[in-house]
């Protein structure tokens, strides 16, 4: 064997060995899937998701569905084949593990963190809704409950649910216009809507569960338009007021913004 052929053989062996190690070694990624959706105007485990006292509430129709993703756990054994499969599957997303779970957290710590974020999100949603409607939190008491869901991304939909129960479309009708409306987005006490993780998968969950409209943080429009399910209308939102105005216009048959 010539020296050149010998060098090529050695290099080829090393490359094959490295590929074998890469294929078998665990990688720092999580695989995410479309998760559950839940109607915040409905019930959870037999009890209303939104309970309001101290003010007259409306009997609503239609649905306002929050969306979630499901991701492999922080200690999941993700290999190269899983990553490659996820890249080519439109129903999945490959995400850096640190973007889904804080580095080094155990599953129990992640669960506690997500529950805390959900509780804070619910508290902020109440403040945002009552502030938008000029209602005093001293007079109007709102309780939110939704088991099995963590994180802050349901903030916008919780807020819209409170607005619908207290004010509807502002003219005696439903904010939903009788439709199944879904969406995602964090919210702060001033009503500003923020981005969320896994946003590209959430419209798939929304369409699967009957939604015809999906509300998305405006800055994330480009993350969802490429693979938007057919027949699902995408409405960008920067603030709570944008979402309320768009839904009221939609209910009245008027044009609404689109990504």
Describe this structure in words.
- This protein is of the alpha/beta class and 259 residues long.
- The protein has a domain of 174 residues: Ribosomal Protein S5, domain 2.
- The strands form four sheets. Strands 6-1-5-8-11-12 form a six-stranded mixed beta sheet.
Supply the key terms.
259 residues; 21% strand; Ribosomal Protein S5, domain 2; two-stranded antiparallel ribbon
Query: Which stretches are low in confidence, meaning pLDDT under 50 for 5 or more residues running?
Result: 3-25
Structural class: alpha/beta
Profile the largest sheet. Answer: 6 strands, mixed
Number of helices: 8
Compute the gyration radius: what is it?
A: 23 Å
Helices and strands, with pairings:
Elements: H1 3-24, E1 29-39, E2 43-44, E3 47-48, E4 50-53, E5 63-71, H2 80-87, E6 93-96, H3 97-100, H4 107-132, E7 141-144, H5 155-166, E8 180-183, E9 186-187, E10 193-194, H6 202-208, E11 213-217, H7 221-224, E12 233-237, H8 240-251
Brief rundown of the structure:
By secondary structure, this protein is of the alpha/beta class.
């Amino acid at each position: 064997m010539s020296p050149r052929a010998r060098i090529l053989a050695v290099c080829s062996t090393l490359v094959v060995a490295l590929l074998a190690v890469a294929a078998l070694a665990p990688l720092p990624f999580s695989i995410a899937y479309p998760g559950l959706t839940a109607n915040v105007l409905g019930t959870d485990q037999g009890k209303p998701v939104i309970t309001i006292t101290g003010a007259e509430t409306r009997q609503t129709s239609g649905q306002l569905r929050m969306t979630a993703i499901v991701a492999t756990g922080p200690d999941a054994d993700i290999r190269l084949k899983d990553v490659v499969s996820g890249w080519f599957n439109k129903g999945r997303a490959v995400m850096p593990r640190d973007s889904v779970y804080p580095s080094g957290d155990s599953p129990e710590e992640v669960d506690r963190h997500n529950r805390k974020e959900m509780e804070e999100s619910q508290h902020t949603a109440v403040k945002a809704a009552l502030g938008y409607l000029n209602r005093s939190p001293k007079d109007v008491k709102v309780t939110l409950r939704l088991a099995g869901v963590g994180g802050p991304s349901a903030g916008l939909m919780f807020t819209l649910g409170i607005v619908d129960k207290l004010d509807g479309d502002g003219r005696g009708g439903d904010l939903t216009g009788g439709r199944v409306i879904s969406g995602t987005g964090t919210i702060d006490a001033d009503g500003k809507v923020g981005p969320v993780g896994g946003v590209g998968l959430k419209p798939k969950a929304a369409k699967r569960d009957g939604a015809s409209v999906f509300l998305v943080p405006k800055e994330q429009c480009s993350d969802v338009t490429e693979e938007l399910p057919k027949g699902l209308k995408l409405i960008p939102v920067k603030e709570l007021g944008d979402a309320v105005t768009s839904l009221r216009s939609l209910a009245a048959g008027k044009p609404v913004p689109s990504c």
